[in-house]
Design a protein that fits this description.
405 residues, 80% helix, 0% strand, membrane, Cytochrome C and Quinol oxidase polypeptide I, mainly alpha, transmembrane, transmembrane helix
Length: 405
């Protein structure tokens, strides 16, 4: 049998590496280092999205749906081919940015993701294919595949219109939107339905249909929020706003399901797991409200002109909603053991850096002064995240807190 715990450690290793690169990027502002800043940004983002989140999610999907199927050899081929792609990106992006060899490995990674998607859909047991979890996960994989239209189109866009055209940025935003909202968050929602079904919580077909339709349509329409920086006609604001409202309605349905079944959920979770789940719900609600705000022309313009608001929102979604939710599922299904110290340190780094990033955005917007040593505080806050990940990866080798194996 495949040791899925070891694959999760690989994904956490990528997260640790991405977090350390984040520290390097923020230290660069304080004390310039002999690196190409933009190249390290590319490496940081690719390893975070494709190394940490993608490997963690696909390992969870294999562990929960395919671990008892006779497909171990096929999965190993996919896993190691994916590692080859990630290693190639690690060895090329820091030294050349977007260039021939890094693009080759990034392209091969897209093919690896198609391979996994086809593998999962083909071999998922029939007994699970009618579950609400599988339906969400299948559509999440299709969103992931669809998001790759963005990168595939970049070559043609650069040839015809050039990298300075609005189409270049729109292609990147298309990819990011459907990666974050379509693939990652919908996949996490599918895992949440798996969790509910695991607890034998019954959800009516009608309720699920309302949730699914509002959420999927909301994901599609809210892409228009990523186009508002171009100053399009008002109908695009309306469509984007409708998408944000539909996602909020879907979230409300999910919260109502949890409220109705709160006694069952409380009895199945440790206090730490329950607190993490509540935190994910709060972070997701804030994320959706911020998304809805950008449907209004004033805030859409603000998000487009104050870069820190966009960076803060993306980190809130990635480090907050997505990463903390993954921690919850890994802990609940026994793939990692979280300690209170690790979670407290991670959240401390996350909240401190988010507060500082949004403060700088507010300063740019409202003319507030930046306090002395701002950059040093931001770099220090960033350092807390890799320290927390070390506690997650090697809990028994750190003496700050006694944790179980």
């Amino acid at each position: 049998m495949i040791a899925t715990k070891s694959h999760i450690k690989v994904s956490l290793g990528y997260f640790l590496l991405a977090a350390l690169l984040g520290v390097v990027l923020r230290t660069f502002v304080v004390a310039p280092l002999p690196i190409n800043y933009r190249f390290i940004v590319h490496t940081h983002s690719h390893i975070a999205l494709l190394g940490w989140v993608y490997i963690a999610l696909t390992t969870l999907l294999y562990h929960l749906f395919l671990d008892k199927q006779p497909v171990e050899k096929s999965y190993r081929r996919i896993f190691w081919f994916t590692q080859l792609c990630l290693l190639g990106m690690l060895l090329t992006f820091p030294f050349q940015g977007y260039a021939l060899f890094s693009i080759i490995f990034a392209t091969l990674f897209l093919l690896a993701s198609y391979w996994f998607s086809a593998f999962f859909i083909k071999y998922a047991p029939k007994s699970l294919k009618n579950t609400k979890a599988y339906i969400c996960l299948k559509y999440a994989l299709w969103f992931m595949i669809g998001s790759s239209i963005g990168p595939w189109s970049l070559g043609a866009i650069m040839t015809v219109w050039g990298p300075e055209s609005i189409w270049y940025r729109l292609a990147i935003y298309f990819y990011l939107h459907f990666q974050y909202n379509g693939w990652m968050i919908l996949a996490l929602t599918g895992l949440f339905f798996y969790f509910l079904e695991y607890l034998k919580i019954n959800i009516s077909i009608k309720t699920f249909r309302y949730f699914f339709l509002t959420t999927v349509l909301g994901i599609i329409l809210s892409f228009f929020l990523s186009t508002l920086w171009t100053g399009p006609p008002m109908k695009y604001y309306i469509l984007g706003g409708l998408g944000a409202v539909l996602q909020l309605l879907g979230f409300g349905i999910l919260i109502n399901i949890c409220f109705i079944n709160r006694t069952i959920m409380k009895s199945a979770l440790t206090q730490l797991q329950l607190n993490i789940l509540k935190l994910v719900a709060f972070l997701l609600l804030v994320k959706m409200i911020l998304q809805w705000l950008t449907a209004w022309p004033y805030f859409a313009n603000l998000a487009a002109t104050v870069l820190d608001f966009t960076i803060g929102y993306l980190h809130w979604t990635f480090l907050g909603v997505i990463s903390v939710a993954i921690f919850f599922f890994l802990e609940f299904f026994g793939l990692i053991k979280l300690s209170k110290m690790a979670i407290a340190m991670y959240l401390g780094g996350f909240l401190l850096t988010e507060g500082l990033i949004f403060y700088r955005g507010m300063a740019a917007w409202l003319g507030w002064p930046l306090f002395e040593d701002y950059s040093q505080f931001l770099a220090f806050g960033s350092l807390l995240i890799p320290l927390a990940l070390i506690l997650v990866l090697w809990p028994n080798k750190v003496s700050w807190e006694k944790t179980e194996d």
